[in-house]
Amino acid sequence: MYLLPALFVSLQALREHEAVRPLSIYAVFAFLISVVSGNYNVFQDEITWFMPLPVYLLNADIGMLVFWAKALMGWRD
Question: What is the mean pLDDT of residues 15-30?
């Protein structure tokens, strides 16, 4: 409950004491950490998880491998 206002206050303090370039670098690092580690989302009483990029790519590769193996064996669903 108090985390979001604290985040905005800390960003305001950073903006007053840092130049734009370091803040941009911090934002890029935060984005990359979010992409690599994944994150949770709560929307309409439903919790969803956005998969981290490595897990998403592994999941897609396994899916393509399964489709390839089915096509190789002539398996029809």
Answer: 85
Which 8-state DSSP code applies to residue 50?
E
pLDDT in tens, 45-65: 888 777 777 888 888 888 888
DSSP per position, the chain: --HHHHHHHHHHHHHHHS-HHHHHHHHHHHHHHHHHH-EEEEETTEEEEEPPHHHHHHHHHHHHHHHHHHHHHT---
Q: Any idea where the domains of the chain sit in the sequence?
A: 1-37
pLDDT at position 77 is 64
51 contacts 59 by C-beta, under 8 angstroms: yes
